Amino acid sequence: MSTAELTGSQVEALTRRGLRLAQFTVAYNVVEGAVAITAGVLAGLVSVVGFGIDSAIESIAAVLVGMRLSARLRHGEADEAKEKLVLRLVAVTFFILAAYVTFEGIRSLLDGEAPDSSPVSLILLTASLVVMPVLAAAKRRVGLALRDNLILADAAETRICVLLSVSTLAAVGLYELTGAAWLDPLAGFVIAAFAIHEGKEAWEGELVEDHDDEGADDHDR
User: Domain span at residue 22?
Assistant: First the structure.
């Protein structure tokens, strides 16, 4: 069903759902980010600090998206110029994250310092693996139903959090088992590559088109 086939009440209901998801994202990531940054700094784990910064960035992006969705509900329509600006601001947050984890990863490799173990980080990352995939999928469904690049960009931010959780958990877990300190910055480089890709798509407003192509490919198969 395209947005042209949605009724006004359906569009409003989906927009409100997107707003609630953005609000939940802010609340969850504020707590997650504070715990991750604290635990990462104490243990000297670059990837965990990067994970916490990603949580903060995701909160900022969700605030921006929530503000625009609230404005839609108040005015009954989208301000395309303002929403394009917000979409680009969200894209910039991807690039900031990529730059940070790349810089810190290189610094960690050059310093050669071995991080400490961090059980708190392992628990936090495991919790993220449970919550974030569900949240990302819910945002994606709303974004696709509305054909909305802004909500899809927010979903992409959350998918990065999922990838970040997987790669960081693997790196921290393997470090605990093997003592290989290079695994931590390597996880950061994986995250940076994904963040750059998603940031580029958000900047160019290609998120809806890409998902349409995926849907067409799935249908053809």
Answer: 3-114+129-214
